[in-house]
Amino acid sequence: MIIEPSIRSNIFLNAHPLGCKQFVLEQIKEAKQFPAFDGPKKVLIIGGSSGYGLASRIALAYAGSADTINISFETAPKAKRTGTAGWWNNIYFQQFAKETQHIHKDFVGDAFGSQMKRDVIEYIENTFGKLDLVIYSLAAGARFNETSGNLIKSSIKALGSDAVGKTIDLADLTVKELVIGTAKEEEINDTIYVMGGSAWEEWIHALADKDLLNPGFKTISYTYIGGPTTDKIYRGGTLGKAKEDLEHAALRMNNLLRTRYHGEALISSSKAVVTKASVFIPQMPVYVSCLFDVMTRNHTHESIVGHKYRLFKDMVYGDKRIIDHEGRIRLDHLEMEEHTQRETIHMMTTLSDEEILKLPGTHMFIKEFHQIHGFHFPNIDYDQETDLETLGQLQPE
Question: Mind telling me the catalytic residues?
C-alpha cells in the first residue's frame, strides 16, 4: 500500500514504517559521533518509544554503553492500519542496536498497570540485573485505576479563565486561533493522577522493595517550564499542576534514595521540542517556530538526542549541573537566555501570520512534526508501495 500522511484535526492517524526507521537511524548516527562517557550501565526507561524517552535511550545505549529496557504503550499494524510511530521506533531501534552487543528489551503495554510491573521486575531479576537509572518519560492521555475500575483521562486546560492563542493547522498550513477552556476541579485532579508523580513513585518503590536498585541509583523525570508566552498552560494550567506534582514526588523519593542508596531523584527541565501535543497548546507552535529560528541563528539550537546526551554526560553523571532554586536541572538554560526569549517574543508579537509561516524555524517545526510520524524524509520515496503485511510480522524484542 502507499502510505500518505493522514491528518484530522491536527492529529496524525498513521505513520510510515520506513520513515520511522530513518528517524531512528538519524538519531543513532548522531549519537555515534558523541564522545563516550561513563554513565549508568543498567537503565529502565518508562516511555522510551518516542520523544525525549527515545532520545535518552539512544544517547545512553550508544554513547554510554548502557543496557536498556523500554516500556511503552503502542499499537501494532493491522490490516490497513499502519500502527503507531512508537511501535516502529521500537522495532528499528532493536534492529540497529544489535550492533552495540548490549541488552535492549522492549515491553509493550500499560506502564501504569500492576501486571506490567510484575513482568518487568521478573525480567530484571532473572535476566537483566539491578538498575542504575530509571527514566520516567511517560506521556499518556489516560490511566486505568485498578482500584476503582475507571479509566481516568487527563486534560490540557487552563485555570481561572480560557487560554487563547495561535496554532498552525498542519493540513492547510495556516495560522489559526486556538482556545483552551477552563478546567473543572475534577479535571485538574484527573490530570494530576494521569500525568503527575504517583505512578513514578510506585515504580521506584516497587523496584526498591524487590532490592533491584544498585548503590548510587538515580531516577529522573522530565518537565517543561518555558517562557511567558506559554505560561498559562504549562505552569498555570492543568499541565502545570501535574508537573508540580511530579516535582514534589522527586523531593519525596530523595529521602528514600539518599538514605538507602546514596542516590537521588531528579527533575530536568528540557528545551521546547516538537511533540504530538504541540499543536494543541495555544501559542506553542508559533513559539517553537520562532524559537527554532532564533536559536538556529544564534547557533544554540540542539537536536533532541544531542540535548539528552548533554544532560547525562554533563549534568546527571558529570560536574556541570545547572540547578535552579527549586532544585531542578535547567538543561533548558540556552532556551531561557534573556536575549533568546526577547528575540523570540519580539518575533511572535510583531510578525504577521504570513510572515511567521515563511520563517525557516516554522519550516523546521512542520518538518519535524511530520518526521516524528515517519514522513518528510527526502531520501524516502513515499510514492512507492510499502509491504505493510510483511513489515507487520516484525515484533518488539
Answer: 234
